[in-house]
């Protein structure tokens, strides 16, 4: 990736703080695979603009409007044409012809700092993906790979399926209930619209949300108890709906060496051996039901050491 950028910061009407920038990127990708040889991947170049307009009011109020243009490049797993045959009924492979996903981000945000450390941030956003990259499945009564023939098989690969638009709101709150107890929460809710160019008249839309809560309790000057919970609602994709997902963590953290170091005992989903996920995907001539049990429960020890002038 070859890139150059130019940015500027200035006042507008002696009232607004403005930051603008533009970056040019040129990407070259080369790939050689043992079973298919050299794969030709076209290089691409593009301009990437960005801009932020903000104003800070009295009493720690800030209002901000921002725009950014982002590039999501396919990684090596997305473009690798190797066939994963570990499940001979559900085969996965990459797509070396993938184009980068391009995203327009527009966000209107409000931030307020309160006395005693409380903070609230509210943002309305729009995110529009073009050449949206998603997993895409096709069903085949028979499919030949090398010298083997597979019957009643689903082939899943990555595709530029079309476009995706998301309209939503994000809320972040941090509130110290007491000197020892602090709560932080983030809630995001958005409406998703997906236009499928691969299968006309199969567009889909749906409401999605996620929420998390982080709580910490300062038992003593050097001992902290931390708890974290996260919930993701069922999420639509181009061919159906992905299941909801819940995780929760507990940690006991002991600080020492003037709080530069800490040792923590951690547990993730300790009361559930598995996270159960049920997925339903549909295509022009098939419906695929998939049940996965993820062994998500874990226990661990974490050591952290801070040095230098990090705050």
| Series of secondary-structure elements, N-terminal to C-terminal | EEEEEEHEEEEEEEEEEEEEE
Largest sheet: number of strands, sense, barrel closure: 14 strands, mixed
The chain-level mean pLDDT equals 91
Are there runs of 5+ residues with pLDDT below 50, and where?
none
Distance between the termini: 33 Å
Q: Give the % helix.
A: under 10%
Total number of β-strand segments? 20
Please tell me what the overall shape is: globular
| Secondary structure category | mainly beta
Strand content: over 45%
Radius of gyration over all CA atoms, rounded: 24 Å
The number of helical segments is: 1
Please render the helix and strand layout as text.
Layout lengths: L1 E11 L3 E12 L3 E3 L3 E3 L4 E14 L3 E12 L3 H4 L10 E3 L8 E13 L5 E27 L2 E29 L4 E16 L7 E15 L4 E10 L2 E3 L2 E3 L2 E12 L4 E8 L6 E9 L2 E9 L3 E8 L6
Parallel strand pairs: 7-10
Antiparallel strand pairs: 1-2, 2-5, 3-4, 5-6, 6-8, 8-9, 9-10, 10-11, 11-12, 12-13, 13-16, 14-15, 15-18, 16-17, 17-20, 18-19
